[in-house]
């Protein structure tokens, strides 16, 4: 089994565990990420939310620590580069739009929930 297939199986398992539909994340599409989320300077917790897919985006927005309303808070990044920036989020990228993830304690605490307001953008 390839690494990509292993990741997809892990993502499907997480979706099943939380009762959320699986919607694959094309790693060639973009996420919005706060660049301070890069693992070496990572501030816990990690937050992620998924809006509906639009154009060449996955719908995912990812940040660590405190959120900011600044226009340049999120930068586009191809999802494949999350392996370098924030590998802890990769298992959760199969969660459908309308999902939120909170990862704390270096991955030892994870909370996943649906927030259907994310579908109204």
Explain this structure to me?
This protein has 121 residues and is of the alpha+beta class. The chain has one domain (3-119). The protein has two helices and six strands, in the order αββββαββ. The protein has helices at residues 3-18, 82-85, and strands spanning 30-33, 46-50, 57-64, 75-78, 99-104, 109-114. β2 (46-50) and β3 form a beta hairpin. The mean pLDDT is 92.
Short description:
The chain has 121 residues and is an alpha+beta fold. The chain has one domain (3-119). The chain has helices at 3-18, 82-85, and strands spanning 30-33, 46-50, 57-64, 75-78, 99-104, 109-114.
Overall pLDDT confidence: 92
The biggest beta sheet reads:
6 strands, mixed
What class would the helix/strand composition place it in? Answer: alpha+beta
Number of strands: 6
Rg, alpha carbons: 13 Å
Helix content: 10-25%
What is the general shape?
A: globular
* First-residue to last-residue Cα separation: 37 Å
Estimate the strand proportion: 25-35%
Strand order of the largest sheet: 4-1-3-2-5-6
- pLDDT < 50 runs, ≥5 residues: none
Number of domains: 1
Helix run count: 2
The oligomeric state of the chains shown is single chain
**SSE topology string:** HEEEEHEE
């Amino acid at each position: 089994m390839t690494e990509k297939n292993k990741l997809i199986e892990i993502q499907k398992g997480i979706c099943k565990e939380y009762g959320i539909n699986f919607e694959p994340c094309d790693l060639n599409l973009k996420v919005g990420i706060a660049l301070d989320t890069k693992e070496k300077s990572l501030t816990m917790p990690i937050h992620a939310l998924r809006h509906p897919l639009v154009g060449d985006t996955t719908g995912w927005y990812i940040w660590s620590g405190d959120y900011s309303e600044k226009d340049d808070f999120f930068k586009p990044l191809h999802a494949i580069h999350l392996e370098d920036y924030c590998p802890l989020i990769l298992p959760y990228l199969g969660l459908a739009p309308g999902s939120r993830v909170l990862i704390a304690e270096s991955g030892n605490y994870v909370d996943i929930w649906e927030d259907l307001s994310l579908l109204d953008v």
